[in-house]
Amino acid sequence: MDALIKSIRPNKPTDAKTPEARPGELDPAEFLAAAVRADQPRPSRAEAEAAVRTLLDYIGENVSREGLLDTPRRVVEAYDELYQGYHQCPAEVLNRTFGETAGYDDFVLIRDIEFTSQCEHHMMPFYGKAHIAYTPVERVVGLSKLARLTDIFARRLQTQEHLTAQIAAAIDEVLKPRGVAVLIEAEHTCMSVRGVAKHGASTFTSRFTGMFRDNPAEQQRFLSLVRGPSR
Ligand SMILES: Nc1nc2c(ncn2[C@@H]2O[C@H](COP(=O)(O)OP(=O)(O)OP(=O)(O)O)[C@@H](O)[C@H]2O)c(=O)[nH]1
Ligand SMILES: [Zn+2]
Asked: A GO molecular-function term, please (predicted)?
């Protein structure tokens, strides 16, 4: 685990995978560790605030007017919050498991995990719900940890596809369950408040591994529970 935590790097283009990565799969060293690069100096807070002032200048604002004096500080603090996932380790939240399951052998589904993430193309929010199921082998993980895992990945720059794949891959890699199913539905503000400006358009992404990938009936049961009568 230490080696994983040390091999820290943010999302990389798929053609830049380490040799250990299986073709077409995510590299565990990328998605199981915190993502801040320890080996690369980061700008200071003062430099980050100066960058915000530059952007305010760029849009034509008067950075010295009273209403904007504290804005660079607030923006950097907001960034600290929105991007805290770079400093958190996904593998750690899944490490605490419980063995007393009375032989439970069906999948566990958590539906409607709300999240907000930031798209990596425009740095604008996309938000929605994640639905996660996994079929445990002997040990189960605390339910809240799947929501925490979602937040860690969501609090980084993302595409929805990458977010979906990372959540599934982390559960698969750490818990080694019989299968994982992840469905995410989200609205992208870069598509609703700018650009093509289509309010209300939803994007759905899914990832199935193990029994969910191999058994269409299980996949269907997951999807019908997600779309169940209470929705
Ligand atoms: N596949 C995928 N695309 C995304 C996601 N978030 C934003 N995008 C899209 O990323 C694309 C970036 O396209 P570009 O043509 O490079 O950028 P752009 O000129 O700002 O595009 P427009 O949004 O069409 O104005 C846009 O089509 C966005 O809708 C995501 O999570 N997944
Ligand atoms: Zn975008």
From this structure: zinc ion binding
How does pLDDT run across 14-58, given as a tens digit for each residue?
A: 343 434 555 566 777 666 777 776 677 899 999 999 999 999 999
Among left, alpha and beta (phi > 0; psi -120 to 50; other), residue 23 is: beta
ipTM comes to: 0.93
Residue count of the chain, please give it. Answer: 231
Q: What angle do CA 39, 52, 191 make, to 5 degrees?
A: 95
- Alpha-carbon span 72 to 67, nearest angstrom: 11
pLDDT tens per residue across span 48-96: 999 999 999 999 999 999 999 999 999 999 999 999 999 999 999 999 8
Which domains are delineated in the chain? 45-82 (no CATH), 100-226 (3.30.1130.10)
| 188 pocket-lining for ligand 1 (C-beta < 6 Å) | yes
Indicate which residue's Cα is closest to atom 16 of ligand 1: 121
